[in-house]
Design a protein that fits this description.
Blueprint: E1 27-36, H1 40-52, E2 59-63, H2 80-94, H3 100-104, E3 125-126, H4 129-138, H5 140-143, E4 145-151, H6 156-165, E5 170-175, E6 187-191, H7 200-205, H8 208-214, E7 224-227, H9 236-245, H10 247-250, E8 257-262, H11 273-286, E9 292-297, H12 303-313, E10 319-321, H13 330-336, E11 339-343, H14 347-354, E12 360-363, H15 370-381, E13 385-387, H16 405-420, E14 422-424
Parallel strand pairs: 1-2, 1-4, 1-14, 2-3, 4-5, 5-6, 6-7, 8-9, 8-11, 9-10, 11-12, 12-13
Helix pairs in contact: 1-16, 4-6, 9-13, 11-12
Pfam families: Mito_fiss_Elm1 (PF06258)
InterPro entries: Elm1-like (IPR009367)
Protein name: Mitochondrial fission protein ELM1
């Protein structure tokens, strides 16, 4: 009896091959999708993590913009989707009526999306969950897996929707605690002080009715990464470039060069012109030990505060006040400063300064409460900051281990990706 030969199937052709990203059995994450809310502080946190992951040159930025003008400034408490719905209804009802300007302001494009040249990109796209998912899926074969990084309250539903619709194509990271349903994200990155109200001291200080609104209600789970402060883009590579770019302007200045960054009052760190007067007095006291002083304001700085500072120091020979013109010297200041004086309200500015390992003095901590106070206490225990009293010798130098939150978080992201069989390539 003859044996019939066994016919094996033909090897699969090009169409059936696994995508190149799975070569070697490991899936490679080769790009980043950032979902921003138009706030520089929030978007810088996303971009800082993307830089730490080595994906800064392979990112797409989508931005969520709330409607503006007229009554819209009073509707920011609404969820973003409901706010847009209300805005569209009002536009339809009030179109071509005498009440349009009162309720809506000028009826320009409802959701303008500006460019972000200051962030190193030429333009951004309007955020849309389905559009992001379609883009990620359609380019999966060529571009590979994507990390989605979002920050801010308005970005939460977008990032969670993208992860829900394309779980096999994306790794979703939400920066700043979303307050609920942490399981909708692969990782949540948030400062330790967000959990302050769960501590024994926090339980005593924070009113019971406020706890659910200002803090998570459960301890951090396995997909939560805790940081000391805010993530940012001021890493060593960025500061080296800034040092070169600003060399001609900042290097010749008399030493020590002291940089003063002034923010603005917040809900948990509220102050007024009294703090500005205190700062003015202290700066006059230390000016003898300063070689040169450069002052800059943030977008949140009240007009009466900036006006007071300008009146006092605009003609002082040692002082220079940045007026908001381009280019922004912020990175140059971080690179060349010998010491910093920063108002206590800005977690982001303090985090950036503390990443340099240089002396950082804080003014106004007595006006802060709850988790802001916890943040300042953490920095003081690390030896990263000292209170600014006006009696300092600004030529004194001291150091501490720099904050490296973005690097630490990036390492954790790579670790979790490796557990899934993914890598950043």
């Amino acid at each position: 009896m003859s044996i019939r030969p066994l016919l094996l199937p033909e090897p699969p052709g090009e169409v059936d091959r696994a995508p190149e990203i799975f070569a070697g059995g490991v899936a490679a994450v080769r790009r980043a999708v950032v979902i921003g809310n138009g706030c520089a502080g929030a978007e810088n946190q996303c971009l800082g993590l993307v830089r730490a992951l080595g994906l800064a040159d392979r990112l797409t930025l989508y931005r969520i913009i709330r409607p503006t003008g007229g009554i819209n400034k009073w509707l920011h408490f609404l969820p973003i989707s409901l706010h847009k719905m209300v805005d569209q209804v009002l536009r339809h009802i009030l179109s071509n009526t005498t009440f349009t300007t009162l309720f809506q302001g000028k009826l320009s494009a409802p959701y303008p999306v500006s460019n972000v040249q200051s962030l190193g990109l030429s333009s951004v796209l309007e955020a849309d969950s389905k559009r992001i998912v379609t883009m990620v899926r359609d380019t999966f074969e060529k571009e590979g897996l994507a990390i989605v990084v979002a920050c801010g309250r308005d970005t939460i539903p977008y990032a969670s929707s993208v992860r829900c619709l394309a779980p096999d194509n994306v790794f979703a990271i939400q920066i700043q605690h979303p307050r609920y349903r942490l399981d909708r994200f692969d990782l949540v990155v948030t400062p330790r002080h967000d959990y302050y109200a769960l501590t024994a001291k926090g339980q005593q200080e924070v009113p019971w009715l406020f706890r659910r609104w200002i803090t998570p209600r459960e301890p951090p789970g396995p997909n939560v990464v805790l940081t000391s402060g805010a993530l940012h883009q001021a890493d060593s590579a960025a500061l080296r470039i800034a040092a070169t770019n600003w060399h001609d302007e900042l290097a010749p200045l008399p030493k020590p060069l002291v940089v003063v960054n002034i923010g603005g009052p917040t809900r948990n760190c509220n102050y007024g012109v009294d703090l500005a007067k205190q700062l003015v007095s202290s700066l006059h006291n230390v000016s003898e030990t300063c070689g040169s002083v450069r002052i800059s304001f943030s977008r949140r700085t009240p007009q009466n505060v900036s006006d007071l500072i300008l009146r006092e120091f605009s003609t002082h020979p040692k002082f220079y006040i940045w007026g908001g013109e381009e280019p922004n010297p912020h990175l140059g200041h971080l690179a060349w400063a010998d010491a910093f004086i920063i108002t206590a309200d800005s977690i982001s500015m303090l985090s950036e300064a503390c990443s340099t390992g240089k002396p950082v003095y804080v003014v106004g901590t007595e006006h802060c409460r709850w988790k802001f106070s916890d943040f300042h206490n953490t920095l003081q225990k690390r030896g990263a900051v000292r209170p600014f009293t006006g009696s300092e010798d600004m030529s004194d130098s001291w150091s501490y281990p720099p904050l490296n939150d973005a690097i630490d978080v990036a390492a954790r992201v790579r670790e979790v990706l490796a557990q899934r069989g993914w890598t950043v390539g």
